[in-house]
Amino acid sequence: MNRIHKAFDHGPAFITFLTAGDPTPEKTVEYILEMERGGADLVEIGIPFSDPIAEGVVIQEANIRALSGHTKIKTVFDIVRKVRQRSQIPLVFMTYVNPVFNYGKERFFSACEETGVDGIIIPDLPFEERSECADVAKKHGVSLISMVAPTSQDRIKEIAAVGDGFLYVVSSLGVTGTRTKITTDLKEMTDLIRSVTSIPAAVGFGINTPEQASAVAAVADGVIVGSAIVKIIGRYKDEAGPRIYDYVKMMKAAVRKAAEK
Predict the structure, then answer these.
(1) Each residue of 12-37: pLDDT tens digit?
(2) Average per-residue pLDDT for the chain
(3) Hey, is 145 helix, strand or coil?
(4) What is the CATH classification number for the domain harbouring 227?
């Protein structure tokens, strides 16, 4: 059964990200469990890819490290299997069209169902070509999560209307990475989304401080943090577990505090 809805059952969700295989597959399992222990409601797992066009330098370097360690799609599915032996936290893949199609769509989404992957985000899948993956993903109980950028209102409405699982709202144009300031009118975007769908809207790209997380949680259904966590892993490698736990716990507290206001 798809678990994504559980992430949003008790107020704004705190969603975290890491790259599979960075620094090792075993540590990826450990760090996912540490994030859950710290309060993460859903974890996005990046499948390493040689050309991650939506990612900034921090996550690009994590991809390089993981690929240098010979992390393959099969490795990533093994990571999910090991997490599922100990946790039922919602898990979502972040990947690109090329790995999915090279693996084979049917084979890929069948493996998602078998291992317990709840959703997938494919940044380079054009909205107009969504059906290329949507039908097979749905057949295997995997939510194809759409990304909504700060573009025209008509475009936002069109994408939001067919959302599944949750909508990934991009806070700023450009690639992933921590930002000192988010200038997009997120309330206007989330209000527009809510006018056409009841699917939760979670905001990502650039969020890295408790203050930013609190501000986003006040207007959105979820807060997504990736690069800040990947930075911790890149710096501390095999010893990152306690620091990931502390950071996630701090950020989750900020999200929870905003929800209580």
Answers:
(1) 999 999 999 999 999 999 999 999 99
(2) 92
(3) strand
(4) 3.20.20.70
Per-residue pLDDT tens digits for 154-207: 899 999 999 899 999 998 654 444 444 554 689 999 999 999 999 999 999 889
Distance of CA 44 to the CA centre of its chain: 4
Total structural domains within the chain = 1
Angstrom distance (rounded) from CA 196 to CA 68: 44
pLDDT at residue 98, as a whole number: 94
pLDDT on residue 255: 97
Domain ranges, residue 13: 4-260
Burial environment of residue 236 by CB neighbours within 10 A (0 to 12, 13 to 18, 19 or more): middle
Q: Which two tokens stand for residue 83?
A: 């997490």
CA dist., res. 92 & res. 119, Å (int)? 4
For the stretch 76-125, pLDDT in tens is: 999 999 999 999 999 999 999 999 999 999 999 999 999 999 999 999 99
Question: Nearest 5 degrees, angle CA 3-CA 205-CA 1?
Answer: 10
CA 14 to chain centre: 10
Per DSSP, what are the bridge partners of residue 14? 223
What DSSP element (H or E) covers 170?
A: strand 167-170
CA dist 83 to 79, 101, 111, 169, 254, Å? 6, 25, 15, 27, 26
- Active site members: 44, 55
What residues have CB less than 8 Å from 62, skipping those under 6 apart? 18, 19, 22, 46, 48, 230, 233, 234
Amino acid at 7: A
* R_g of the chain computed on alpha carbons: 17
